[in-house]
Design a protein that fits this description.
The complex is a heterodimer of chains A (about 110) and B (about 220).
Chain A lengths: L8 H13 L5 H12 L5 H13 L3 E8 L7 E7 L1 H18 L11
Antiparallel strand pairs in A: 1-2
Helix pairs in contact in A: 1-2, 1-3
Chain B lengths: L7 H10 L7 H11 L4 H22 L1 H33 L1 H11 L2 H6 L1 H6 L3 H26 L4 H28 L3 H14 L2 H14 L4 H4 L1
Helix pairs in contact in B: 1-3, 3-9, 4-5, 4-8, 4-9, 8-9, 8-11, 9-10, 9-11
Classes of the chains: A alpha+beta (about 110), B mainly alpha (about 220).
Chain lengths: ~110, ~220
């Protein structure tokens, strides 16, 4: 993993939200997805900060979409994962699953 | 389609301080959410979080520029403060040439002599000195804000916000230290000083902002590059 970009907890959430939404993922839908999944409020500023970092690392790419009236005529910025991003998410998942396995403290669902 | 108007001040703040946060899509996201029935407090929180995130991102990308700009801005502020002190000293020297020598003998540094509480109360010029100091401090902050927004190679908004934050921290720290020192022999005076500092606190960032406003305009040299 040396030299490869790493993902923070929130960056991983954003990556997963983008993958789950698929085509048409943008700021609002990403924050909605994370809010629904985690149950806690997500600030749009954190989402933009994370997507900018992910884009700098080459893990996602963005393009401007259509402008709609309910957005005051402003265009959406759509995000999609790159193959590099998908590969990193898979590797992160594998590493986490390995770390998860065989932990007696986490069995049975009680802290 | 009629849109519910979003809080104007927050939108203005975002336009000025979030100017490089990726085109208009950010504003579009905010408007879309606001139309879904979110309130003004929610809107303000989002705006502040966006501006903060953009500032952190800029700082991360331009660490050295921020550091150098911050040091320069503090130097400018210090230089202007000393100049303001000299103006006060000159005014005092003209009015009380004999007493000035006594002030220097008692307090050492002439600037410290003029700014000290003892000197003010001795010559019953407290109010006048306070007003003159207020005017000079106002000018110092406005000019420093102007310098912040014009001197940097990076987005001026970031240096302005970082300077404002550092000024607030330094001001709070100094006020607390002075109040704690005075509180040992005059608790009431310390409480008054602290209250005065607390009331004055929001004005300093506002003055820095007024000074830096031209640099934040979309027509400023940075945004024209």
């Amino acid at each position: 993993m040396a030299g490869q970009p790493t993902l923070s907890n929130f960056e991983l959430m954003v990556m997963l939200a983008i993958i789950r939404i698929g085509d048409g993922a943008y700021g609002v839908s990403i924050s909605d997805e994370i809010e629904e999944t985690t149950g806690s409020e997500v600030l749009l500023g954190s989402v933009y900060d994370a997507v900018n970092r992910l884009e700098e690392k080459g893990l996602i790419e963005s393009s401007l979409g259509e402008a709609t009236p309910e957005r005051g005529g402003r265009a959406k910025r759509h995000f999609r994962t790159t193959s590099k991003g998908l590969r990193l998410v898979r590797e992160t998942q594998r590493s986490l699953v390995k770390l998860w396995k065989g932990l007696p403290q986490l069995k049975g669902g009680e802290a | 389609m009629t849109l519910k108007p979003a809080p104007r001040a927050a939108t203005w703040f975002l336009n000025r301080f979030g100017s490089n946060t990726e085109d208009e899509s950010v504003m579009g996201d905010l408007i879309e959410q606001y139309q879904r029935g979110r309130g003004s407090i929610w809107y303000w929180r989002q705006v502040l979080s966006i501006v903060f995130a953009a500032m952190v991102q800029d700082c991360r990308r331009n660490k050295w520029n921020v550091l150098v700009g911050l040091i320069h801005s503090w130097c400018v502020w210090g230089g202007l403060q000393i100049t303001a002190g000299i103006v006060l000293l000159a005014r005092f020297a003209i009015r009380h040439p004999v007493e000035l020598q006594r002030g220097i003998n008692v307090y050492g540094l002439p600037i410290l002599a003029l700014r000290s509480r003892g000197m003010n109360s001795t010559y019953e010029e407290g109010v006048e000195i306070m007003l003159l100091s207020l005017v000079l401090n106002t000018l110092v902050l406005i000019v420093t804000g102007f310098y912040c927004s014009r001197s940097t190679r990076m987005n001026p908004r970031t240096l302005l916000l970082v300077f404002m934050a550092s000024y607030l921290v330094a001001n709070i720290g100094t006020s607390l230290a002075i109040s704690a020192d005075i509180a040992r022999h005059a608790p009431n005076a310390a409480a008054f000083l602290l209250l005065r500092a607390l009331v004055a606190l929001p004005f300093a960032p506002a003055l820095i902002l007024i000074g830096g406003m031209r640099g934040l305009s979309p027509h400023s040299p940075y945004f024209k590059r």
